[in-house]
Specification:
The protein has about 180 residues and is an alpha+beta fold. The chain contains six helices and eight strands, in the order βαββαβαβαββαβα. The protein has helices spanning about 20-30, 50-65, 75-85, 105-115, 145-150, 165-175; strands at about 1-5, 30-35, 40-45, 70-75, 95-100, 125-130, 130-135, 160-165. It has a four-stranded antiparallel sheet, with helices on both faces. Helix 3 (about 75-85) crosses helix 6 (about 165-175). The longest helix has 16 residues, at about 50-65.
Length: about 180
């Protein structure tokens, strides 16, 4: 079965790694057909194991190899397709749309945080099929009130986010 591992905190705040080296760690951990998408930690691979087993195996391998506390989230090709096909916002040049991959129930936590935050014009959030999506004007991602919530240490093991354009690239690689 094909999967994508979404690594959290890669190539930000001093956690730098080359994707070729990450791919080798995945291969050494028994994954097949391993390749990376962008430098933000999206690894497409094949395995006969389930997502729970894969998360455990890969976090341990990454933590040991890179000497850091690795967090990653594994989604099957089917789950990634559902994610892509459920985007609730239309694409507009002046807006970014992000999708959040994480532990079950994190979408409710994120929505609560979003509702408490001050929004700028055209900033929106939605939950579709238990997945959280965020739309924000370009240039406001890191400055928005909700954007600052995303860096909370208390949430670091619960989710990671990607621009929806990244999901499109991942699906192309999976097919």
């Amino acid at each position: 079965m094909k999967y994508c591992a979404f690594l959290r905190g890669v190539n930000v705040k001093g956690t730098n790694m080359k994707m070729a080296e990450v791919c080798q760690v995945f291969k050494d951990a028994g994954m097949k057909e391993v390749s990376s998408i962008l430098a933000s930690g999206n690894i497409v691979f094949s395995s006969d194991k389930n997502t729970t087993e894969l998360k455990t195996i890969l976090e341990k391998a990454m933590s040991q190899h890179f000497s850091y506390e690795a967090f990653l989230f594994v989604k099957s090709q089917k789950e990634t397709e559902v994610f892509w096909n459920s985007i609730p916002f239309g694409k507009k040049d002046e807006l970014h749309i992000y999708g959040f991959v994480g532990i079950p129930g994190v979408e409710k936590v994120l929505m609560e945080e979003f509702q408490k935050a001050t929004q700028v014009e055209n900033e929106n959030a939605a939950i579709v099929n238990d997945m959280f999506y965020w739309q924000v004007p370009k240039g406001n991602t890191l400055d928005s009130t909700f954007g600052k919530v995303l860096g909370k240490k208390s949430l670091k093991d619960q989710f990671t986010s990607r621009n929806v354009n990244t999901f499109e690239k991942i699906l192309k690689k999976m097919n």
